[in-house]
Design goal:
Elements: H1 2-26, H2 31-50, H3 57-70, H4 77-115
Helix pairs in contact: 1-2, 1-4, 2-3, 3-4
């Protein structure tokens, strides 16, 4: 799960970077405010990559997705992009857990084969 979720979060860092650049040109919000918000969100994404094995990390990821969608209030394109990344986050969590379960099952089978 960590690999898939980390990939999604790093993609979001790039999205936030480019969204910040676009927001500087298309909104009346100050440049400092835009970079404080987008920079903070980028830092959260990167830190969350390292915390994915901890309890509550997936919930923080969902909160980040909600914030990304809500940024559409400032930049309407972000409604769609936020929804796409929320779907990617769901897929990363869902299929990542399935992959982890399959890996654990195969490791258990390999351990049984060695013991037998």
């Amino acid at each position: 799960m960590r690999t898939l979720c980390s990939s999604t979060l790093i993609g979001e860092v790039l999205l936030l970077l480019f969204a910040g650049l676009v927001a500087m040109r298309l909104t009346d919000v100050s440049t400092g405010t835009i970079w404080a918000v987008t920079g903070g969100a980028m830092v959260v994404c990167v830190l969350l990559c390292g915390m994915l094995s901890r309890p509550g990390a997936v919930a923080i990821g969902w909160a980040l997705q909600i914030g990304l969608i809500a940024s559409g209030l400032l930049l309407p394109t972000m409604f769609g992009l936020g929804a796409v990344f929320a779907a990617l986050w769901w897929c990363s969590v869902h299929y990542g857990r399935k992959i982890d379960a399959i890996k654990a099952q195969r490791a258990a089978q390999a351990a049984e084969a060695v013991a037998a």
